[in-house]
């Protein structure tokens, strides 16, 4: 059965952790869905991880939709979330147009950054499932840094999370905050929290898929390497190039043949 918002909320009630990864393409979506991930997420980290941009703010709505459509074709069971890109939710009307485009192309819900209570409530009142995103928010901060380290800033993050819930957010992502703050917010909120670099006690976890496959050259404290896929890709590319150059590939088993008479006729 397809996983809906009810399912995700029930998981929190039953103290079961929610699993989530980013995804930007069809084959990865098929595998993540098959692996039983709860949430598959076309984030605007598309920009830095897949498209080679310096920052997430370069990602356009059309680019998100292009990848969302591919991921949609691969997702059968998981909840499919899409990010609202930078400057596509400047006011409630613009936000609704953006959100409707994303849901039209297969998103089950949309995520936006910061304390945008008015926008969240407008989308919610129009039947859109909205996810908030607090702490470090790449659309507003240009360098990754832990947020909410002082009491005052922690209080702002916690109060913002409650305001998002009150405005009608269904979920909230917490990025790069102290573990204690992640725990307090997760206990205070009825809606589930999903952490990335937010400690062990959020209601679920998300990682950027390249970060956990070892495809990214960078190393991050909050991520964990679950497979040296990057190293495997590099070795495969090198082996292929070497074999083409040496003539070891293709071999007889990799080729198709014509009938002798057809070959003769072709020559004449
Ligand atoms: O775009 C993204 O990958 C995100 C996650 C880090 C939550 O917003
Ligand atoms: Na994002």
UniProtKB/TrEMBL annotation:
Pathway entry: Cofactor biosynthesis; (R)-pantothenate biosynthesis; (R)-pantoate from 3-methyl-2-oxobutanoate: step 1/2
CDD domains in the record: KPHMT-like
Binding site for 3-methyl-2-oxobutanoate: 44-45, 83, 111
Matches recorded under InterPro entries: Pantoate_hydroxy_MeTrfase, Pyrv/PenolPyrv_kinase-like_dom, Pyrv_kinase-like_dom_sf
Keywords, ordered alphabetically: Cytoplasm, Magnesium, Metal-binding, Methyltransferase, Pantothenate biosynthesis, Transferase
Keyword check for Phosphoprotein: no
Pfam family, one: Pantoate_transf
Keyword flag Transmembrane: no
Gene3D superfamilies in the record: Phosphoenolpyruvate-binding domains
Needed co-factor(s): Mg(2+)
GO molecular function terms attached to this record: 3-methyl-2-oxobutanoate hydroxymethyltransferase activity; magnesium ion binding; methyltransferase activity
Main location: cytoplasm
Similarity-based family: Belongs to the PanB family.
Name of the protein: 3-methyl-2-oxobutanoate hydroxymethyltransferase
Organism phylogeny: Bacteria, Bacillati, Bacillota, Bacilli, Bacillales
């Amino acid at each position: 059965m397809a996983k809906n918002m009810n399912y995700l909320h029930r998981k929190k009630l039953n103290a079961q952790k929610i699993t989530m990864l980013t995804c930007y393409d069809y084959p990865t979506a098929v595998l993540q869905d098959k692996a039983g991930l709860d949430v598959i997420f076309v984030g605007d980290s598309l920009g830095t991880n897949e498209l080679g941009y310096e920052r997430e703010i370069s990602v356009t709505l059309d680019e998100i939709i292009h990848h969302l459509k591919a991921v949609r074709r691969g997702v059968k069971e998981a909840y499919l979330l899409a990010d609202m890109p930078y400057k596509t939710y400047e006011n409630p009307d613009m936000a609704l147009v953006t959100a409707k485009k994303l849901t039209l192309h297969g998103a089950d819900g949309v995520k936006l950054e910061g304390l945008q209570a008015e926008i969240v409530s407008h989308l919610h009142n129009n039947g859109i499932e909205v996810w908030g995103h607090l702490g470090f928010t790449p659309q507003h901060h240009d360098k990754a840094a832990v947020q909410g380290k002082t009491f005052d800033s922690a209080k702002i993050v916690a109060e913002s999370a409650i305001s998002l819930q009150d405005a009608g957010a269904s979920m909230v992502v917490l990025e790069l905050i102290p573990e204690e703050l992640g725990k307090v917010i997760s206990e205070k909120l009825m809606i589930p929290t999903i952490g990335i670099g937010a400690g062990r006690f959020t209601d679920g976890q998300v990682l950027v898929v390249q970060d956990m496959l070892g495809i990214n050259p960078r190393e991050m404290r909050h991520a964990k390497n679950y497979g040296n896929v990057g190293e495997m890709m590099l070795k495969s590319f090198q082996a292929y190039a070497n074999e083409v150059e040496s003539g070891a590939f293709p071999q007889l088993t990799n080729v198709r043949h014509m009938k002798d008479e057809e070959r003769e006729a072709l020559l004449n």
